[in-house]
Amino acid sequence: MVIAMNLFGCATTRLENVGVGELERALAGATDAPGVVVGTLRRVGTKTVRSAGLADVRSNTPVSRSTPFAWFSITKLFTAMAIMRLVEAKRIDLDAPVSRYLPEVRVARSGREATVRHLLAHGAGLRNPIPVSWVHLTTEPPPSLADMVRQRVGTAPDLAFVPGEKSSYSNLGYLLLGLIVERESGETFQEHITKDVLEPLGCAASAFGGRSERATGYQRRLSFMGLAARWMLDGRFFDGSAGPYRVLRPFDVDGAPYGGLSGPVDDLLALAEMVLADGLGPGGVFLSTATISTMLTPFVTSGGKATEIGLGWHLGKIGGEPFAYHLGGGGGYRSELRVYPRLGYAVAVLANETSFPTGDWARLVVR
């Protein structure tokens, strides 16, 4: 049980207002990860960032607000932003079939072809194989994005449902979106995200690939994920134990568009700040107000059913309060970014343990 639940009650179905002092005491007592960082933002520009614990247990290095963590699937938000900026530049049509941009791939079933919008909203029908083996040590070269698409998606993937019929999470769709970014920008995916998304948002401390200053990843040995990973991951990814944790060597995912970014908490808050400002970034308009609204609007299936996902963002409610969010999780790390548009409030949580319960912290509204 997380210390936040002890302090603020076990009703995770409601928001909890807390003071900075309460947040600090909760973090000081957190035992679910070696290190945790919680950052909050109000639309008026007020930030609160607090951290506790260790970025690296063996060297006794403390975690801080500037410590980069692997974000894993939160990267999808940055991929989605890149696509939407290309849409605004009229380089991409949201409702065009995927084959217009990737002629070698046909994502179709029953005569209906998936569109770019379907990919963004996980509505293309693509399956979601567990990507646990889609990783490489930071000392190893990664496969190209084109190779990943050939290996993992193919030219005519077997779909789980007709595109647009429903929404079901898939990393494969974001591999395709990343390749579309490459084709339409004329740059590698990593180059384009850095120049067209990270830099305009002021996320200078975030990057792809291995980073020596990134927090070390840990996995609790006596947990479901800890036991499963021992059998599913190659032994070269482990570096012994530290207390109750199994230590993971620095590694990166093979598919950058679905999970390759690392960065500190302030860079996640920068993305949230742009959303809360209706598309305004540090240097001016990053996306139009209409585009931000579209991204936060539920995707509607071909049968007329509103889903709990927008374009890139997942959508939820807590105590009647709507929020948009994305989780990130993988070997050794857990993260969450949550934006409450009506409250003008956002919270980001980063931890260096695979199963850390970010939701218990993301529901706290710091006064």
Care to describe what's here?
- With 367 residues, the chain is of the alpha+beta class.
- It is 29% helix and 25% strand.
- It contains twelve helices and 21 strands.
- The chain has helices at residues 3-8, 20-28, 75-88, 116-120, 145-152, 171-185, 189-201, 224-232, 256-259, 265-276, 289-295, 359-362, and strands at residues 16-18, 35-42, 47-56, 61-62, 69-70, 108-109, 112-113, 135-137, 207-208, 217-220, 238-242, 245-248, 251-253, 261-263, 280-281, 284-285, 314-318, 321-330, 333-340, 345-351, 364-366.
- The strands form seven sheets. The protein has a seven-stranded antiparallel beta sheet, with helices on both faces. The chain has a three-stranded antiparallel beta sheet with strand order 5-14-9. A three-stranded antiparallel beta sheet has the order 10-12-11, with no helix packed on it.
- The longest helix is centred in the middle third of the chain and has 15 residues, at 171-185.
- It starts with a helix and ends with a strand.
